[in-house]
Known about the structure:
With 308 residues, this protein is α/β, with parallel strands linked by helices. It contains 13 helices and 7 strands. The protein has helices spanning 3-7, 22-31, 52-73, 112-116, 119-125, 139-143, 147-161, 174-185, 204-211, 228-237, 243-246, 261-268, 285-302; strands at residues 86-90, 99-104, 131-135, 166-172, 192-196, 250-255, 276-279. α2 (22-31) packs across α3.
Amino acid sequence: MKAQEWLRQVTVFTVGHSTHSLDNFVELLRAYGIERLVVVRAISNTHPRSTPMAVVANSYFKILWISICLLLTGGCFPAGKIPMDTIYFYRSKTSPNHTLLVFLPGRGDTVQSFEKNGFVDAARTAGIDSDMLGVEAHEEYYRDNTVFVRLKEDVIIPAKKQGYKDIWMVGISMGGLGAILYDTEYPGDLRGVFALAPFLGNNTIVDEISQAGGLARWQPHAVADGNREDSIIWSRLKNYVTPEKNAGRIYLGYGNDDRFVTTNRYFGNILPPEQVVSVPGGHDWPTWRLLWDMLTTRARRDAGLGGK
């Protein structure tokens, strides 16, 4: 294929100077579906030979480019399998059990991280006598836009056939976004969602929504606009502005030092206060575990989650 023909089939973005950390920069690139980054640097005609500083700069950009490409392409994960891999963490002795917790991992984690970090034991300690299922919904499914149909066909439909009536999704970071968007994609499938530090787009969208008078009054951008992915996410979140859509269903937790705190806090403002918790901490497992303990206690008390 000629270069001109190939360029007509792809979307090209330009990236200017910023002071973002590498992790945050990669999150921004991934939010817009960018899979390759090309660094273009001009060479001065008056100084054709690289100075020591230029050599250092060129080496730095080469290393940065390689690092970002590895992060963007998700080299640690295979292509999305059909059906998705699942693992039962726990099966209640109560038969039949009508409640199922479905765990979705964050970017770079495997679903076993939930068990390793005590989520299963914590739920049982809180008195939640539910079956618990982990799903390897890694980022490849998000990249090829198959995550929701695979969750529907490989997890939710079989679960309903097994007799589960109350299905809750538990997601962290990328998995938190996945759980929320699944709930809006297939309304009625889930009893509720636990979203811990979910990725909800970039902070700039919050300013735009605030200027419009709040989420209920805000109207999403056209698809052609630059923040279209953020607009898609928040157009889905508009589903939760009414109590009948969120009461006793959507539980949100985040750390006060989390890099997603701005968007998480804004989303939390439209939910019932008793369904939102924040604690000191960042984007890490100790913080998420503390949030999980608090949220499961509230859901057990207020929504009857997994009662014996």
